[in-house]
Design a protein that fits this description.
This protein has one domain: UDP-N-acetylmuramoyl-L-alanine:D-glutamate ligase. It is built from ten helices and 13 strands. The strands form two sheets. The chain has a nine-stranded mixed β-sheet, sandwiched between helices. A four-stranded mixed β-sheet has the order 3-2-6-7. Strand 12 and strand 13 form a beta hairpin. Helix 1 crosses helix 8 and helix 9 crosses helix 10.
Length: 313
């Protein structure tokens, strides 16, 4: 069956304001100088859809922004990349979700976040047919989507599967309350793509294999755990595929998980095997880590494929 979009990317859309390198915040009203400041479209939905568009997929963005100047940047930047923004809600009286990230010389990024419009976003019944007019359905941002978290997200993922979409999922951070929102979703997720740290917080247990079995036993078809410098582990049934990280110089880790997800989905959309999907995910994440912000390093599909080939040689 023909679908209008390769991917619908639903969930958390954020404006990131990043600066580097930040070693300390000046005291009082003093000023310090840094090398670089950037604005980027980010969030577990926003960062992913931007990278997917750069990788050549036909995408629609489904989320919410406010009625402020931050919304103009978020919507304008996505439109410039060819992303369909018709289903992005612009809400009166609230701010666009945004984060200030002070990026340390080692790539760590302490953050200050304004929850904003993403807390007011929902997918109404009259939107559903358009939202699900896609081959792949990605839900990103569970835990920071106040109206959509929990059972509404479970119903949405279930509807996506019933519509024949491949479902993928990620979150941004995990805390003591996040599990209650994640548990109902698990039977409806084909590719479950958290970091190992997030998985361990959600499950309450340690270890890669232990977490794979935990999430498989709760209905996830294919756990995909990103592990930073240790690469990624993909599990399908009893099969395990480990892909090592590439040897790169890390500038900023913001958006690396979103870039991995984008590369992974892009390879699946090409009907590549899981091992190749993991490699394209690692390559995309590695390029993002080489610059400032969640879309840094990625220019287009040919460039990512060439970098991947060079790293694997």
């Amino acid at each position: 069956m023909s679908r209008r979009f390769d991917v619908s990317v639903v969930g958390l859309y954020i404006l990131d304001i990043l600066g580097r390198p930040v070693t300390e915040i000046p005291e009082g009203g003093n000023v310090d100088f840094i090398d670089e400041i950037r604005l980027t479209v980010a969030g577990t939905a926003g960062g992913t859809v931007v990278d997917l568009a750069k990788l050549g997929l036909n995408c629609q963005a489904v989320g919410a922004v406010g009625d402020d100047e931050k919304a103009e940047f978020v919507l304008g930047h996505m439109e410039k990349l060819g992303i369909d923004i018709r289903l992005m809600q612009q809400l009166d009286g609230v701010e666009t979700s945004a984060t200030i990230l002070n990026v340390r010389p080692n790539g760590e990024r302490p953050a200050l976040h304004c929850r904003g419009a993403s807390d007011h976003f929902d997918v109404s019944d009259d939107m559903l047919a358009e939202v699900l007019d896609c081959r792949f359905f990605h839900l990103g941002g569970t835990g920071l989507l106040a109206k959509l978290d929990g059972q509404p997200s479970a119903r949405l993922l279930k509807a996506a599967q019933e519509a024949g979409c491949v479902t993928t999922w990620d979150l941004v951070g995990a805390g003591p309350d996040t599990w209650q929102f994640v548990e109902p979703l698990l039977p409806h997720i084909d590719y479950f793509i958290p970091s190992i740290e997030e998985a361990e917080i959600l499950s309450g247990i340690k270890g890669v294999e232990e977490n794979i079995r935990f999430f498989q036993s709760r209905g996830v078809t294919c756990p995909v755990l990103t592990m930073g410098g240790d690469g990624a582990m993909i599990a399908m049934g009893d099969d395990r595929l480990h892909v090592a990280a590439y040897d790169i110089e890390v500038v900023d880790t913001t958006g690396c998980g979103d870039a991995f997800t984008a590369g992974f989905i892009a390879a699946l959309a090409d009907d590549r095997p899981l091992l190749e999907a993991a490699h394209l995910g690692i390559a995309s994440a590695s390029l993002v880590a080489s610059g400032l912000g969640s879309d840094a390093g990625i220019t287009d599909r040919a460039q990512v494929e060439a970098a991947m080939a060079a790293w694997r040689a």
